[in-house]
Amino acid sequence: MKYYHSLGFSCYVLLCFTKRACKSGTLAGRLQRRCFTCSGSIAIPGKWDAFHIGHRRLVEVASSLGNPVLVTFENMASVLGWPSRPPLVARDFASRILCSWEEELSLGPIKLQVIPFERVRYMEPKLFLDFLRLQLGFEGLVCGEDWRFGYQAQGDIDLLKNYCAENNWKYRIVGPVYVHDILVSSTVVRQYLAKGQMEAVSLLLGRHYCVVGKVVDKRKRHCYVSELINQLPATAIYEAVIEQHKHCYIHVINEERDKNSCILIDNFTLDHSLHLGQQVDIHIIRKVLSHSTNYLNIIFQFCLYIEEQHLKLFLHDRVLSHTPQQPHRR
């Protein structure tokens, strides 16, 4: 059965992300490398790379059975020889996403169980389920309907259902999640990122996409952010919110310098200076202008855009100030 997500997030959600302290600490505080002994733990296996609204749906369903635990596999890509690519979510930012889910769903701390992939790579499907149930102590499992498991992905949903019936093990199968008729998946998120379609990315994630990096150079009119942790969107100019010491500023960003991926932030839009060498969280809202190879043309187009926005705001305020108030009726 399809699940259509009713999305009501706005900039308010973004500000909650930047200002609310996370009671569960960093993602490292959630990691569990030993066997679980917590009663009532429900496994949610997956790559957990995007933390999109489909993943949130899995957590929501698992919480109806017990305590949701995200199960992921360490070094899976390198062991299988998959090409390396940057993650969609920075490690520390993932903990903040989980904090928001805990608050929205009224849950306790959501834990993360890390399993070395080499440990389970050659397990047959039933042995893998035995491993989750008997060795790690999970009392049930929640997954998507396309989940495959066991050696060479031989296990499917039918095998899972039979196993759960034989062993009286809890389970739920969650159908695909759609938002505005778009199938929610990490692959689709990457596709929209590659096109710079940030509004669609925000819909799939339930929040604005956040790039985490470090300020590596400062100039009079701009500064550069490099040492980027997660995937960048398509090269273009974007409207964004820069979070630095919990203060938010709106900027336009670009991403090219000396053949290394980076983000250019124009200082004339800043109310306060960014500090050299400090981490910056950049929440990308939408594309403003397509990429231009001429830097001066980029700045000129951006200045025109900013002036246009200021003019709209000025005219809006003027209209409000000259609008006659309606007399109060008793």
UniProtKB/TrEMBL annotation:
Cite the SUPFAM superfamilies for this sequence.
Answer: Nucleotidylyl transferase
Which top-level group of life is the source organism from? Answer: Eukaryota
Q: Which InterPro entries match?
A: FAD_synthase, Rossmann-like_a/b/a_fold
A biological process from GO: riboflavin biosynthetic process
Q: The FAD synthetase domain covers which part of the protein?
A: 46-187
The protein's enzyme class = transferase
Respond yes or no to whether keyword Transferase is given for this record: yes
Alphabetical UniProt keywords: ATP-binding, FAD, Flavoprotein, FMN, Nucleotide-binding, Nucleotidyltransferase, Transferase
| Entry's EC annotation | 2.7.7.2
- In which pathway is this protein known to take part? Cofactor biosynthesis; FAD biosynthesis; FAD from FMN: step 1/1
Which Gene3D superfamilies does its entry note? HUPs (3.40.50.620)
Record's keyword annotation contains Chaperone: no
A GO molecular function for this record?
A: ATP binding
Annotated protein name in UniProt = FAD synthase
